[in-house]
Amino acid sequence: MRRQRFRAQWRAMTFLIxxxxxxxxxxxxxxxxEIEVGDRRDCPLPLxxxxxxxxxxxxxxxxxxxxxxxVVYKVHALGRDWAVKRARTPCLVQNVDGQTSFLNEVQRRxxxxxxxxxxxxxxxxxxIVSTVYxxxxxxxxxxxxxxxxxxxxxxxxxxxxxxxxxRELLRAGFFEWDFSPGNLLDDGQQVWLFDFGYMYRFDxxxxxxxxxxxxxxPLCHLAERIESRHVFGTWLDQDPADVLVxxxxxxxVALATYRQLHDELRADGATAQVLGWLAGVAxxxxxxxxxxxxxxxxxxxxxxHVMDLEDDLHGRTCTPKTLQRVDWLLDAVRTHHGAxxxxxxxxxxxxxxxxxxxxxxxxxxxxxxxxLQVRLAA
Length: 378
Ligand SMILES: Nc1ncnc2c1ncn2[C@@H]1O[C@H](COP(=O)(O)OP(=O)(O)OP(=O)(O)O)[C@@H](O)[C@H]1O
Ligand SMILES: [Mg+2]
Known about the structure:
Helix content: 40-55%
Bound molecules: adenosine-5'-triphosphate, magnesium ion
Strand content: 5-15%
CATH class of the domain at 34-145: Alpha Beta
Radius of gyration: 21 Å
Structural class: alpha+beta
CATH architecture of the domain at 34-145: 2-Layer Sandwich
């Protein structure tokens, strides 16, 4: 009963695709409207004191200022630790999505808090940090501190938890683009997401993701985002034999997740286009798990490293990892060009380029990435 009401509400909403979403967020920002989540009386310190936090404040235990949009303070108060996220003004990212990322974060926190406040909703999204208080105009978001560490190696529990969180978000109409290493923490029991700057609304019944018109970027989906932003990066530092074992584990979890998501979205009334696309992706994995897993590894690795390389070049935020990624691509094309072609793994014009052409192209990108190295935050 509750679920039916919930679905009807979703259908009645206007789902914004990329350009409309950007414009609507710019308009919202210009309107100076406040969004408040939670009650300021629940803050661990009085709000004016939180707004005046500085590294020398006696309650501040750590300062994380590597991010371009925010500074995060670890604050000890009321007998426990809290994360106090303060938006940078101005934000240091020079594009619309960066400029609106704190607004986006507060919007998502408001929506997720509202879903959790529904009858029976308290247990939803177990891997998503809760919001104690957030205010758009004050540029602050307060959450419990997650006593965890970044995920540097993946195992079955970690895969299962991040895919489970992603699936639950998708079904509720949220598409998370940024599963990067700085945005995931593992406390040994649970993998947590806590940064909602690039999580956008979309209609999971009609769209693949929140990009373009919702169906123009079929390459981008939950497993692709997790693999491109995070997992393939960690595999670069591991023994190739271990990587293939871990890849099998990832694909088994991804396959089970997509089969479940497919059935749930079918029951919710998804279009044949969405269901066919999801089933097609999952069928490909199933075939590879029973046959040519290395071929699939090459194809997904090519896709993930190209996607992340292009992101880094575009954002002018290259690191030594970017160089490792482009070296992986160069090695793949030198050693496995025929297999990559046969797998249908080359895309965006690369399928029409010769092996030598690809080597020249990615060698040039490596040089570009060498010139765009950013200093890593401490
Ligand atoms: N609730 C939390 N518990 C523990 N650590 C946190 C929490 N929230 C943030 N952090 C720490 O602060 C860092 C930065 O947080 P977050 O990713 O939210 O902001 P940001 O990276 O500055 O934003 P952006 O991704 O736009 O650059 C995280 O990588 C993490 O180390
Ligand atoms: Mg972040």
